[in-house]
Specification:
The protein is mainly alpha-helical. The chain has 34 helices and 3 strands. The relative contact order is 0.03.
Length: 793
């Protein structure tokens, strides 16, 4: 081994140190010769001065130990540690000295010294000094509050009364109710300010203040028992408004680990971090809303103990708080789905909302159903509608079709007008495509691939790909709807959802596949002939059947005579009262049965329907009468044979039989339209105008013609126009009358809803009837004002 050269400028070891190292190495190797001990005592005895000191030293020396001479000689060898020998020799003496020294120290000497400041108000505690580069030492100290010594024992007088080791709690001052309310108000004010600042910062610049989104979300976990419920509500609503404002118009995708490991620009990394943080906070917010809606988040104050007397009140308050939080959370989720149906976690929101459509709670059920309707109305792509329809169908099937009617009524809001069943039929499976490719030659395969590429490029330039996707989604959606409808139809008449199913089939009848037509007609005929359906359900069956026949089912050999008979018999069962909600169904049926099938309807059938519609018009409100009169007008314009109903003379043998069920054999040609003179005196001016026009055989010019605003409208449009108007009549002010007159007004009823113009028209009608009849005593009273209180029914 070569010795390493010492570094230049290094310190040299002293001779003493080198000698000690050499001695230690030889002692370890056993080569060191043992030295004989020196005889100090013999030499010292010869010297008298030394002997006297030796005697004194022997008197004070510690007792000898049990060590042998060899051990003493070994440990006395230079270079070896002899602390063990010295400690064993001096152990007893040092222990006694230490005990005496500790007993001699007074207790105040053990306490740490503190230097009192000059003003005697503060203490100074010394710290380690600082030494500057020039060698000056700067002392350091800090100030401390004067704290009484905890180790100091209390006076004897006080310790006699208190037992040892007993902790006396500190008594806090009691606060009044006003002080508590003030403290709660201050806490709420601070929380509201904080929420407002965070929300405004996020809306102003979401990317720069994304960390504040987490801070705002953590306020959902407020645990202060005084304000936690209010703060949570404010945080829920504030987060919902923030998310509605800053959610982008596209779905966010979290980058994979491979993408993160790759090199990217600083802007790209910043954007990735922002999107990832945004999605995490959005997911946690939706999870909190889901737990709140399901009642898994407690709204009870932690540490709150209610007494026995207030137990019932506290439990009721607890239930109200939970219910209020559930409704608020459900409304927030619904608003997010309606505002941003394209964003992430859409399917999770749908799975939470759909079960609450059939909830026993009416308020939560209405919120969920209305949300689904709004999504169906505003959905243009079709993705959200398909997911919701599948979720609703799955829920209905799992509950064995025992759901509310409002759940199925939401399907009526779907905006589906076209479907494409041919594309699904022509779509080849993978095996069929492989078989076709095997039969083709190489040249044909190359040509087919080029044609597919060209078609794809053309679709991209024409933007027709979205239309095909939308059509495909609409087709899948309507198939799921019809599958649910057909499953309910299998249940028969006893199903409570039958009316909703028939109404849905009537609306989407033009989208039904041709393969189901025969089975549907048989089911409808059996349902109507059973006479267990309501008149509204019967109308829906007739409407569905004729919509099918007017569309794809026109080529089918199906006799619709039974459905004409069903509609003719159902007209007199329609509700006659203040509302005419069933008139639109009747008008749509007449349009499909009579207007669109001009050459397939006989003369007797048309005359019977005109007579029955005018009879029904006498029993309906003004909007229903307007729709029925326009339908009769269109029949008179289309069928010239209807002029027989305006002639008093009979056109053949037989007598009109209005109670007969078959319109072909009721002899409607032997009657006349005596309802028109009554409708000419109707209280509604538009009804009087249209009735005069119809009684003159619908002239297109001259006296009695209709204006362009009425002539161009369809019966359904006129009905909806007047049905939506609520300010048709202005209420009359009540006059002060006697008790007899007041009782008379109460018996007749509804006198405060009549106009002054109506009273004048009633008086004119009374006088004209008197002049025509010439008899004032039969069936009429001499007081014309009595007729002003008659309510139209």
């Amino acid at each position: 081994m070569k010795k390493q050269k010492s570094k230049k400028g290094g310190k040299k070891a002293s001779a003493t140190k080198l000698n000690n190292k050499l001695t230690t190495r030889l002692a370890r190797q056993g080569k060191l010769k043992k030295k004989k001990p020196r005889k100090r005592y013999d030499d010292d005895k010869n010297n008298p001065t030394v002997s006297t000191t030796l005697d004194n030293h022997q008197q004070e020396s510690p007792p000898q130990s049990d060590l042998s001479d060899d051990d003493v000689s070994f440990f006395s060898t230079p270079g070896l540690n002899t602390s063990f020998v010295n400690s064993s020799l001096c152990e007893d003496s040092t222990s006694k000295k230490r005990k005496l020294a500790e007993d001699a120290i007074s207790p105040f000497e053990r306490r740490p010294r503190k230097i009192v400041h000059e003003d005697h108000d503060q203490n100074l505690k010394h710290l380690l000094p600082i030494k500057t580069k020039k060698g000056a030492i700067i002392p350091q100290s800090t100030e401390e509050d004067l704290i009484p010594d905890e180790k100091e024992e209390p006076p004897e007088e006080e310790t006699h009364d208190k037992p040892n080791n007993v902790h006396v709690p500190e008594v806090l001052p009691e606060l009044t109710s006003i002080q508590l309310m003030y403290m709660r108000k201050q806490k709420l004010l601070d929380r509201r300010r904080r929420i407002a600042l965070l929300a405004s910062a996020l809306i102003e610049n979401p990317e720069a203040n994304i960390r504040k989104l987490k801070e705002l979300r953590l306020m959902l976990e407020e645990e202060d028992p005084d304000v936690f419920l209010t703060v949570r509500k404010l945080a829920i609503v504030s987060l919902m408004e923030v998310f509605k404002d800053i959610i982008p118009g596209y779905r966010l995708r979290v980058a994979t680990q491979e993408e993160k490991s790759q090199k990217a620009k600083k802007e790209t990394k910043t954007l990735r971090d922002y999107e990832e943080s945004f999605l995490v906070n959005y997911r946690h917010y939706l999870e909190f809303l889901e737990k709140t809606v399901r009642g898994q988040v407690s709204s009870k104050k932690k540490g709150h103990r209610h007494s026995k007397t207030n137990g019932i009140n506290d439990s009721a308050l607890q239930q109200d708080n939970v219910k209020e939080m559930q409704i608020m959370a459900l409304r927030c989720m619904c608003d997010l789905l309606v505002k941003h149906p394209h964003f992430n976690y859409r399917n999770n929101i749908v799975t939470v909302i759909v079960p609450y459509m059939n909830k026993a709670d009416l308020k939560m059920s209405c919120i969920a159903c209305e949300t689904v309707r709004n999504v169906f109305r505003e959905d243009r792509g079709g993705h959200v509608s398909l997911e919701i329809v599948k979720a609703v169908s799955k829920m209905i099937k799992s509950r064995e079709f025992k759901v509310k009617r409002e759940v199925l009524d939401t399907f009526l809001s779907l905006r589906i007008k076209e479907v494409d069943y041919k594309s699904q039929e022509e779509k080849m499976t993978g095996q069929q495509r492989k078989d076709m490719m095997r039969k083709m030659s190489k040249r044909e395969k190359k040509r087919k691939k080029k044609m597919e590429e060209l078609e794809k490029e053309l679709q991209e330039t024409k933007a027709t790909e979205d239309k095909k996707k939308r059509m495909k989604l609409h087709t899948e959606t309507i198939q799921a709807v019809f599958l649910t409808y057909f499953r309910i139809l299998k249940g028969g008449i006893n199903s409570e959802l039958l009316s909703a199913v028939l109404e849905g089939l009537a609306k989407f009848a033009h989208l039904i596949n041709v393969d189901f037509f025969d089975d549907l007609f048989k089911v409808f005929d059996d349902l109507i002939t059973s006479q267990e359906l309501s008149y509204r359900e019967s109308l829906h069956c007739v409407q569905t059947a004729f919509v099918i026949l007017s569309g794809q089912g026109a080529a089918l050999n199906i006799d619709p005579m039974t459905f004409y008979t069903h509609l003719y018999n159902t007209l007199f069962q329609v509700h006659a009262g203040s509302t005419s909600e069933d008139i639109p169904i009747i008008l749509s049926c007449l349009d499909a049965m009579v207007t669109k099938r001009k050459r397939q309807v006989s003369q007797q059938r048309i005359l019977a329907f005109i007579k029955r519609l005018l009879t029904l018009a006498l029993l309906q409100s003004h909007e229903g009468v307007l729709g029925l009169l326009l339908a009769v007008r269109s029949f008179i314009l289309t069928y010239k044979s209807s002029e027989m109903l305006f002639d008093n003379e009979t056109q053949g043998s037989g007598v009109f039989l209005p109670e007969l069920a078959d319109p072909e054999h009721c002899n409607a040609h032997n009657t006349m339209l005596w309802e028109l003179p009554l409708l000419k005196r109707h209280y509604h001016p538009v009804i009087r105008q249209i009735t005069t026009h119809v009684s003159l055989l619908t002239p297109t010019s001259g006296e009695g013609q209709l204006g362009p605003d009425l002539a161009r409208k369809s019966p359904l449009e006129l009905y909806e126009t007047h049905h939506s108007r609520e300010d048709l009549f202005i209420p009359m002010p009540l006059n002060k009358t006697s008790s007899k007159n007041r009782t008379l007004h109460n018996k007749v009823g509804a006198h405060n809803l009549i106009q002054k113009d109506f009273s004048l028209s009633a008086e004119e009608t009374f006088l004209s009837v008197q002049l025509e009849t010439g008899n004032k005593s039969e069936g009429l009273t001499s007081d014309p004002m009595k007729y002003t209180n008659i309510k139209h029914r």
